[in-house]
Design goal:
The chain has twelve helices and 13 strands. With 334 residues, it is of the alpha/beta class. The protein has two domains: 136 residues, Nucleotidyltransferase, domain 5; 180 residues, 2-Layer Sandwich (Nucleotidyltransferase, domain 5). A hairpin with a 2-residue loop joins strand 10 and strand 11. Helix 3 crosses helix 12. The longest helix has 25 residues.
């Protein structure tokens, strides 16, 4: 098989990452080199930023004497996957942008774009999960950070809807009459375990009533300084209040996962993102909640699904560029 090269690009609100992805066969993709630049945000700067991106690609192409075959782009946005249009990217302050068409004209390459969480899922699937579990074809991946995102690989392919978004895992309802989420709905998973909301809910509670917890000491009585790292540290010190909050975190996550197990019967559940590092405090409760809520026949000890389903916590920061390159290669070359 001919060796193919893709340029993978992950456009974030703070920085834009680039990666050279080499494809040796349909299951082996190698990130040969990566780098990043500062993102220039704002609608009026969108085309200028694209010119900066193209210039970076041209520079590395000349420096390494490499010929790129395709380009994949990850972006945190509501988008039309099939047309390659950005509908709205809040962190970038971009809207109504024909990103695929613009980049294809500027780069002279076939370009595919997708949501950053979807693309990270694909990157993790091929660079981590397939190496550890070669026969696995179905995974669900949660990105646990400021918000909650994710993606689904089903029968070896990234799952997409007909148009616009699919697999918005952070907006699975876990409390039907719950708190108002930033998306406009009530009771979304993200509203309870997205780091911003998770921390704010605790601050709100601690301001309302005095609770026995070492959190006050860890933040020097300034609750505005509270974050998930401090909540992790408090749990490490066996603080009962913090441990209980991580338990609730795990329970809500388990409610969401049980629905996905009933729908997709995944072989592996993956957690990534900064908050996933606290897995030892929430994952046991997540697993128990899944066992409590899946379809009753699946709970049977003789049923292979839950017995064989794996939970994996994946660290790393370049799955967006890897996944972008892989998606482009799979879409245009394989």
């Amino acid at each position: 098989m001919k060796v193919n090269y893709a340029i993978g690009i992950d456009i974030g609100g703070t920085e834009t990452k680039f990666g050279i992805i080499k494809c040796e066969d349909k299951n082996n993709f190698i990130l040969e080199h990566w780098w990043s630049i500062k993102t220039i945000c704002g609608q009026k700067n969108a085309e200028y930023m694209l010119d900066v991106i193209v210039n970076e690609v041209e520079k590395i192409k000349n420096l390494r004497s490499i010929k790129f075959d395709v380009c994949g782009v990850a972006v945190a946005a509501l988008l039309d996957f099939y047309k390659g249009h950005i509908i709205y990217a809040p962190n970038l302050m971009w809207g109504n942008l024909k990103l695929k068409n613009l980049l294809e004209k500027k780069l002279g390459l076939p370009v595919i774009i997708d949501n950053d969480a979807n693309i990270a899922t694909l990157g993790i699937f091929y660079s981590k999960i397939k190496h550890k579990y070669p026969k696995v074809k179905n995974i669900v991946c949660f990105t646990l950070g400021t918000g909650v995102g994710g993606g689904v690989v089903y029968k070896g392919e990234l799952l997409h809807g007909e148009i616009f978004s699919a697999t918005e895992l952070g907006h699975i309802t876990v409390e039907p009459d719950g708190e108002l989420c930033g998306c406009g709905n009530r009771g979304c998973l993200e509203r309870y375990i997205g780091a911003r909301w998770f921390v704010n809910n605790i601050i709100k509670e601690l301001k309302k009533k005095k609770v026995k917890t070492i959190i006050y000491k860890l933040v020097n009585n300034n609750l505005a300084d509270l974050n998930t790292k401090i909540l992790y540290d408090a749990a490490e010190k066996n603080d009962k209040y913090s441990l209980h909050k991580w338990k609730l975190f795990g329970k809500y996550l388990g409610i969401a996962i049980s629905n996905l197990v009933n729908i997709f019967a995944p072989e592996v559940i993956v957690f990534t993102g900064g908050v996933a590092n606290a897995y030892k405090f929430f994952l046991p409760y997540t697993i128990q909640e899944v066992k409590n809520r899946v379809w009753p026949i699946i709970k049977d000890v003789k049923h292979p699904l839950l017995q064989n389903m794996k939970y994996e916590v994946v660290a790393g920061q370049n799955y967006g560029v890897i996944g972008a390159g892989i998606l482009a290669i799979k879409s245009f070359l394989l």
